[in-house]
Amino acid sequence: GQDSAGWLLFGGEKVNTWELVFEARVPPIVLLSACLTSAVAGSHASVSSGLLRSGAISVLGTYLPVSGVKSAAFVARILFRIDSLLPLLGKFGFTAVSWRTFLAIFLRMSFASDVLEYFESRGFVDNEQQSSINIETNRRINLQDENWYDELILGVSRASGLSTDVLLRIIKDEHPFMETLNYCQIGSPERLYIELAAPEPEGAEGLIPA
Questions:
Q1: Cβ 57 vs Cβ 187: under 8 Å
Q2: Helices assigned H by DSSP within the chain
Q3: Which band of pLDDT confidence, cut at 50, 70 and 90, is reported for residue 206?
């Protein structure tokens, strides 16, 4: 898509998403994990923009090339969260959840995992410490604690014995690029709400509605 509209490649067939309007049912939410679907240096007529034109309301695209294995895991984590979290929220009495909020929270969790994997690769934390810090960080993110990143760095500091200033300086000097930063959400995700099934009244299990 350098000189013309972006496209998706299925086998040997290029699909121009700008030509899907009135030709295909495009869902309101699209998750893309192919490379360069909303490219920084590509055509403004990107794959993501074409899907918005063709009926999508929110598209998760990619600025840059992505790792095949990591991108597959990234999308699988979103699908797992949809499958596991939404029914749980319904049981706790929530009636709807904003897609914008849902995905924003997930992206923070994914970024936290990237940061902790980076620190583990540097030998600052072991796998057990990384897992423990990740669980606590995810808890804070899900509770929408604004200090989750500071607490993550503090957790690594305690585990590694390095000060938070040293850890932040290492990040600044090495400027590692986290995989999650390849992704961007475009469109109007704030317009989308997922309606959650209301919990059944006690004793109503198995009843067939009239």
A1: yes
A2: 47-53, 68-91, 99-121, 127-142, 148-160, 164-174
A3: very low
The CA angle 56-57-62, to the nearest 5 degrees, is 75
DSSP symbol at 36: T
Lookup result for tokens 């699988």: 76
Express each pLDDT in 143-186 by its tens digit. Answer: 999 999 999 999 999 999 999 999 999 999 998 889 999 999 99
Amino acid found at 58: S
Cα separation, 42 vs 50, whole angstroms: 13
**Hey, what are 125's tokens?**
């934390």
Measure the CA–CA gap between 21 and 8, rounded to whole angstroms. Answer: 15
Q: Yes or no: say if 57 and 191 are a contact pair by the CB < 8 Å rule.
A: yes
The long-range contacts involving 139-146, CB below 8 angstroms and separated by at least 24 positions, are: 141/105, 141/108, 141/109, 141/112, 142/105, 142/109, 144/105
DSSP 19: G
**pTM of the predicted model as reported, rounded to 2 decimal places:** 0.85
Q: Is 52 within 8 Å of 59 (Cβ atoms)? A: yes
- Helices 148-160 and 127-142, interaxial angle, to 10°? 160
Burial category of 49 from C-beta neighbours within 10 Å (exposed 0-12, middle 13-18, buried 19 and up)? buried
